[in-house]
């Protein structure tokens, strides 16, 4: 039956109902698989009479269903009436034994197809095997192969280099060797291919001409055919195998001539007796089994296991006499066997590697013939020599060493030297006797705790990969983590860019001119790119993007029929260029054109003889100083052309050199992508041109603001698209005690950021796990009519809230909770849909998931809201520099430079100090009241993982002729430190001491002698394990990685210039 929905009711006229349940399905009634909703559970009933219907997101084709109550009415008991919705399902199956296959021959020798559709279902307990393979006459091939429990598709149409070693498959799916049905759909239309396994689809393009092939199903039965490669045949069952609408299994069953059968293909599925069980808990799961026979002359144990955990106790066997025991455990992904003896040193041996890869691994342990033999996956055995035979005490403990205590209420007492095993086991043999797990479940054999029988409940938390921006996903049994090293992003899911969005932002934090990586769309899909930031101007900060044609280009011999074409390749991608230009207030590009008898326009009809292409590849024939549509040059605008009868100097067509140089500044067309010159083929004709880099200034979003002066007013935007991740940042200033900054609602879900009291900002949301609330409380009022910064983030791993420089609030997401935030209303900014608790004040620089919101434009059409914000500190003129804070006064403003390394009225004057050999400056940090407040109110929500989310950003300049020298040390109360020193040879070294029992990480970003009396500027930036070091004057930019994570957020003091020893 194909099941599409299930419905439940409680027991009639009672207090008995089930409020949530798990749904399992099986093809045989013995091996079960859980149907997973987003969090694995189905919503049940709230009373005994109402019917609750749950439609399945994808139907399941099954013979058996099992409903397992998870929660029920605490005032009653479990009561469940069920109804199943679906339709009949016709099944054609073929069973392959690893040596058999089916060959399908086309009716014609060669047949060209534009569209191909292959669909099938399969189940197998083997991780390797070819499901289908085909080869054509012109080098085309297709192979669908089960490899390491995943599906690899090799597809090439008409490519003669099919045997190249560069064959790279498209891989989809995971854990497909679980002896449950999996659906496969391959769709090809021309060169577009969709590969779908269960509900996961991969779309890609393939090359070739699209010829059809001979296909074999279940293996490769074409011995001797040129190019056939050796692979293991499929061992398992296939169902409803269709090729372009043709039922292959039906043809085979009816012995049609198009089908050739190799080996023993049967048309009913065999049912291997595997008997898996799942160990659920890392603290209390165990399975205790007695020895099958007398074990006075040694014993043997065999089993298969699969897990994601790198550590876990697999087997513990108490020996005679006590306290001798034999322990088999996974340690750092390897199998580790330890023999503990009384009064003697323990004996140990290790074998295997990466045993936490989620695949099934076989283990055999034998203690006969005065040695212990350990074999993993049929690899060479490892042995421990014995002086005497081992004698088992009688019981073997799988997964953990636990016993039942019957004193009073029955309890479980567990003893672990390491964590218990979390994973699956099957095919357990003790002294060559099979263990029937059904007898264990029925209480007829052994004992157990926290086990699931007849199912392997392993899941791949990295499918789909929830790590963003190329982050690498790894997992344990209960969670996943993202390695963001080298991606340019940080956070639990690699969501947050570690770079500033613009050169303007680098200027505001005190940076000087140089090359910087910027990320113009923040956490959006565009990656970071390197640009040059020119900060020498008093007002404008220029962003400079270079291209591949920096030298002047000389052109001769070109014509309209054979023009000279120069393609400009920029140092950043087209999408990044578009983002830089769109986010800037002004952009320009200089075009220098020197000519001799080389015209830009034809004097007869005005048609262009030379032109340039814009960023979209459109032809443009206007030149510097003019807007689109005006075919003139800058000399016409300045009224100084060499011949006033023409609008360009070059159009005078003189034999002497002339010049038409100008600035292109229409943003929508920049940058220049191609230069085309078509009039240098006459005698004496020549052109020399040079196209400058793209130069932009101003950050359009930094001061984009709106003022709210009615509590019932708000701005509305389209629904927030942030199912899996959302980061929200903005600045606000207000005199009101409370108000909602923004809100977006769904049917049951919501997300909200608000000023909940004069000194507290609250971030709350609900994705189905119940409301989650994060609050940051300041020791000073936040409604002081000064600008304050807020950044709230929520993803599938965690949520965080940052307000100004106050400590980051952090909350982990539940391991088995709902993931997706489903919203349906409009996004309300400055108020709510109910028009209550509206915000009164100013909001600026609102950015969500890298997208900047144009508050000013939307405010122009909204009553009760105006564009911009009043006050001296609300403009883009950067009154206070280098992290200085602009504070409004009744008759002006002042700059608070207390958080800046600069002084003066505008925080733009460097503060410097001279040291002799014995002098130093120590700055002692005192824990602020706000830290203690936040620690008390929400300590339970803060994980130790939050240590790794702290950042360091250190910048300073120095000049010295002495080495070695201690430049700077930053120390914490927990004995950690960062040190920046000059070695004896004057080279720079960065020391990170994060664990007192380990040697520090030492980085040497520059080997040159920096004790040369020149001024050098150092910038040190750390996010998690990533350390970025920039050395000005040396042109050094280093991206390095720490061995351990996390400088604690308890800095005690900073010392500058002291001569002290580093341990």
From TrEMBL:
Domain F5/8 type C positions: 1-87
Gene3D superfamilies assigned: 2.60.120.1000, 2.60.120.200, Galactose-binding domain-like, Laminin
Family of this protein: Belongs to the neurexin family.
KW Glycosyltransferase (keyword) present: no
SUPFAM superfamilies the UniProt entry points to: Concanavalin A-like lectins/glucanases, EGF/Laminin, Fibrinogen C-terminal domain-like, Galactose-binding domain-like
Domain annotation Laminin G: ranges: 93-269, 276-456, 704-869, 931-1063
Major subcellular site: membrane
Domain of life from the UniProt record: Eukaryota
A GO CC term assigned to this protein in UniProt: membrane
Keyword tags: Disulfide bond, EGF-like domain, Membrane, Repeat, Signal, Transmembrane, Transmembrane helix
Alphabetical list of CDD domains matching this protein: EGF_CA (cd00054), LamG (cd00110)
Protein name in UniProt: Contactin associated protein-like 5a
Membrane association type: Single-pass type I membrane protein
SS bond list: 842-869
Domain EGF-like: 458-495, 870-908
Subcellular location: Membrane
Occurrences of domain Fibrinogen C-terminal (ranges): 494-547
Organism phylogeny: Eukaryota, Metazoa, Chordata, Craniata, Vertebrata
């Amino acid at each position: 039956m194909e099941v599409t929905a299930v419905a439940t009711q409680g027991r009639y006229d009672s207090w008995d109902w089930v409020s949530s349940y798990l749904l399992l399905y099986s093809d045989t009634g013995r091996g079960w698989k859980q149907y997973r909703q987003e969090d694995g559970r189905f919503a049940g009933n709230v009373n005994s009479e109402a019917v609750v219907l749950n439609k399945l997101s994808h139907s399941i084709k099954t013979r058996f269903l099992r409903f397992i109550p998870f929660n029920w009415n605490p005032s009653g008991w479990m009561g469940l009436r069920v109804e199943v919705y679906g339709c009949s399902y016709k099944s054609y199956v073929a069973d392959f034994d690893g040596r058999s296959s089916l060959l399908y021959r086309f009716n014609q020798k060669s047949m060209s197809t534009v569209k191909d559709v292959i669909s099938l279902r399969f189940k197998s307990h083997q991780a390797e095997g070819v499901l289908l393979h085909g080869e054509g006459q012109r080098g085309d091939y297709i192979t669908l192969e089960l490899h390491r429990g995943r599906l690899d598709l090799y597809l090439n149409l008409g490519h003669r280099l099919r045997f190249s070693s560069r064959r790279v498959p498209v891989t989809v799916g995971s854990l497909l060797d679980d002896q449950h049905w999996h659906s496969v759909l391959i769709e090809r239309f021309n060169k577009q291919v969709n590969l779908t396994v269960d509900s996961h689809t991969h779309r890609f393009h393939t090359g070739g001409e699209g010829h059809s092939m001979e296909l074999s199903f279940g293996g490769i039965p074409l011995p001797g055919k040129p190019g056939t490669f050796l692979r293991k045949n499929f061992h398992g069952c296939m169902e409803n195998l269709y090729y372009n609408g043709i039922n292959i299994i039906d043809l085979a069953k009816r012995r049609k001539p198009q089908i050739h059968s190799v080996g023993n293909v049967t048309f009913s599925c065999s049912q291997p007796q595997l008997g898996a069980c799942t160990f659920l808990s890392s603290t209390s799961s165990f399975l205790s089994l007695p020895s099958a026979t007398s074990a006075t002359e040694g014993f043997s144990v065999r089993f298969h296991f699969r897990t994601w955990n790198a550590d876990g106790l697999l087997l513990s066997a108490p020996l005679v006499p006590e306290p001798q025991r034999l322990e088999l455990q996974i340690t750092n992904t390897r199998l580790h066997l330890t023999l503990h003896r009384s009064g003697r040193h323990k004996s140990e041996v290790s074998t295997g590697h990466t045993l936490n890869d989620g695949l099934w691994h076989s283990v055999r342990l034998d203690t006969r013939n005065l040695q212990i033999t350990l074999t993993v996956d049929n690899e060479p055995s490892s042995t421990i020599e014995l002086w005497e035979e081992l004698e088992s005490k009688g019981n073997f403990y799988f997964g953990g060493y636990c016993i039942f205590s019957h004193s009073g209420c029955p309890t479980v007492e567990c003893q672990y030297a390491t964590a218990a095993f979390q994973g699956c086991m099957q095919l357990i043999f003790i002294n060559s006797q099979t263990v029937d797990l059904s007898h264990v479940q029925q209480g007829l054999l052994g004992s157990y705790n926290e086990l699931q029988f007849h199912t392997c409940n392993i899941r791949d938390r990295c499918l789909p990969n929830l790590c963003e921006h190329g982050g690498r996903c790894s997992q344990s049994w209960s969670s996943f983590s993202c390695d963001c090293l080298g991606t340019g992003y940080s956070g639990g899911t690699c969501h947050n860019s570690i770079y500033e969005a613009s050169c303007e932002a680098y200027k505001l934090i005190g940076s000087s001119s140089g090359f910087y990586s910027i990320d113009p769309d923040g956490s959006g899909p565009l990656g970071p790119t390197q640009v040059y930031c020119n900060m020498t101007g008093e007002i404008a900060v220029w962003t400079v993007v270079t291209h591949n044609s920096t030298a002047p280009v000389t052109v001769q011999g070109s014509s309209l029929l054979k023009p000279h074409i120069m393609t400009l390749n920029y140092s950043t991608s087209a999408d990044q260029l578009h983002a830089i230009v769109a986010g800037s207030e002004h952009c320009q590009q200089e075009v220098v054109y020197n000519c001799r008898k080389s015209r830009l326009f034809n004097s007869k009809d005005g048609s262009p003889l030379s032109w340039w292409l814009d960023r979209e590849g459109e032809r443009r024939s206007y030149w510097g100083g003019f807007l689109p549509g005006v075919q003139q040059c800058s000399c016409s605008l300045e009224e100084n052309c060499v011949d006033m009868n023409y609008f360009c100097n070059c159009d005078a067509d003189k034999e002497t050199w002339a010049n038409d140089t100008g600035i292109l500044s229409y943003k929508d067309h920049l940058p220049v992508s191609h230069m085309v010159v078509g009039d240098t083929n006459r005698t004496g004709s020549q052109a020399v041109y040079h196209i400058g880099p793209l130069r932009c200034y101003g950050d359009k979003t930094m001061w984009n603001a709106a003022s709210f002066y009615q509590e019932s007013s708000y701005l509305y935007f389209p629904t927030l698209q942030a199912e899996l991740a959302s980061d929200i940042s903005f600045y606000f200033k207000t005199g009101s005690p409370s108000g909602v900054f923004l809100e977006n609602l769904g049917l049951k879900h919501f997300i909200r950021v608000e000023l909940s009291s004069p000194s507290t900002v609250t971030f709350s949301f609900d994705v189905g796990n119940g409301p989650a609330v994060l609050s940051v409380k300041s020791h000073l009022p936040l409604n002081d009519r000064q600008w304050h910064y807020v950044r709230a983030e929520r993803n599938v791993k965690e949520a965080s809230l940052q307000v100004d420089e106050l400590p980051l609030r952090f909350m982990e997401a539940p391991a088995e909770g709902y993931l997706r935030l489903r919203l349906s209303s409009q996004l309300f900014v400055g108020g709510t849909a109910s028009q209550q608790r509206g915000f009164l004040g100013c909001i600026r620089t609102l950015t969500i998931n890298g997208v900047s919101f144009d508050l000013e434009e939307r405010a122009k059409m909204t009553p009760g809201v105006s564009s911009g914000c009043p006050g001296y500190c609300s403009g883009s003129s950067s009154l206070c520099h280098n992290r200085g804070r602009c504070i409004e006064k009744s008759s002006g403003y002042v700059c608070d430079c207390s958080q800046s390394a600069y002084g003066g009225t505008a925080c733009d004057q460097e503060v410097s100090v001279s040291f002799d050999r014995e002098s130093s400056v120590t700055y002692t940090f005192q824990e602020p009241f706000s830290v203690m407040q936040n620690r008390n109110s929400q300590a339970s929500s803060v994980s130790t993982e939050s240590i790794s989310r702290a950042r360091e950003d250190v910048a300073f300049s120095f000049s010295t002729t002495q080495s070695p020298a201690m430049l700077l040390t930053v120390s914490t109360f927990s004995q950690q430190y960062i040190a920046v020193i000059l070695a004896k040879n004057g080279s720079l070294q960065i020391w990170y001491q994060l664990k007192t029992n380990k040697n520090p990480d030492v980085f040497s970003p520059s080997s040159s002698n920096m004790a040369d009396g020149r001024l050098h500027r150092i910038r040190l930036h750390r996010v998690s394990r990533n350390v970025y070091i920039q050395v000005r004057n040396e042109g050094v930019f280093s991206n390095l990685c720490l061995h351990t994570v996390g400088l604690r957020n308890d800095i005690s003091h900073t010392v500058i210039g002291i001569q002290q020893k580093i341990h």
